[in-house]
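Researcher: For the record, we're logging two predictions in this thread. I'll number them. Prediction 1 follows.
Model: Prediction 1, sequence and structure:
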Amino acid sequence: MGYQLIIVGPLETNCYLYFCEDTRACAIIDPGAEAERIFPLVTQLSLKPVIILNTHGHVDHIGANVEVKERYRIQIALHAADLPMLEESIQLEFGLMLGAKPSPPPDRLLADGEEIKIGQTSLRVIHTPGHTPGSVCFYTEGILFAGDTLFCGGVGRTDLPGGSWKQLAESLRSRVLTLPDDTVVLPGHGPKTTIGEEKESNPFLE
């Protein structure tokens, strides 16, 4: 397996292409904006997109869903708890400011613990509510696509609608920090880190 990072949109969202090196099957994780920057890299790497995976429903993570779906005719997957966000007027208005487009409803609802096959590899869904009710991380051995749950030196905001510091703290304690210390954390914004580094130095985890 392999992955490629593309930073998209004015909020510099990390969009990831996660792919099987043998089959070139690919998941597009959080296409938040600028689909025109995502498409050339898919072609350049000879990838075959099979699914769009959203870590949560905020507009800066779903803003290019519609263009990617139309281009590759693939499913969008999101946790059911974030479905209401797709219709919120404040999100739609904010999306217009960011150059994002409203997302179609998901074709597939993500469930905690399910394995999503990507060619000969897979990603496990870990439901991590707190930043949003339906926030999820995607885990494969050695790598965690963390969305806006955990950052290098920080954690996701909980002051937005649907956010909960109590839920986020519990998600981090019981679902994220229990992963091996050498797990590489690929967050929704900013540089990558590891579980071990965050345990040692992240002020929000004390």
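Researcher: Logged. Prediction 2.
Model: Prediction 2, sequence and structure:
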Amino acid sequence: MDPITRVATPIGQRALLITTLAVPLTGWTIHALTLHRRLAAERRDPLTGAQRRAAFERRAQRLLARHRQNSLLCMIDLDNFKGLNDTHGHAAGDAVLAVTGERLARWAGPQGVVGRLGGDEFAVATRVDPQAGMEQRLRELMGALREPVPTKAGPLTVAASVGTAVPDYLGIHALPTLLRGADVSMYRTKHSGQYGWAEIEDLQAPTVNGRRAGRPGTALLERAA
């Protein structure tokens, strides 16, 4: 047998074996990447980039437990959003929601998490640098939310109501209770252009099927329960 043939044959066999093994491995890699992207997409709201409720709650609870002494939770609700949709159209409304999601993510930073809880309602959990202070960080948040939003209908200024719950101040780190307190404080300052702080008594607000009693829509939930 030709020496060249004797050398080339094992090499060719190894190459064939490697190729044969690589094909299913490549297929599994592509499948895994596709699955990962699909799961990530299911966890995120496609319009705003915010986490959907379940994913937000998991990440926010971990963050609040890890940073007990320097974290805060905010509930954000856009004021008169239905009127904006009715006046300027749904495309403008979608632009406002998308920009709001971006601004909240930028404000929360890489250590924070933003969730879209439904409609024009968002929640943010984040760690606060003690040197920056809670008040300063919240003023920065209000300033970011007040910036006009560029839309095809022209720049739109959208007001937002913000309620805040500080775990260390309240002595509570359970996310559902903190969300309730932030929700109460948000509606207490609704349309005022200011942010509110949750107090101990706010944590005792009754709920209807997981929502604070008295909120818009809870009457329907009571009748359906």
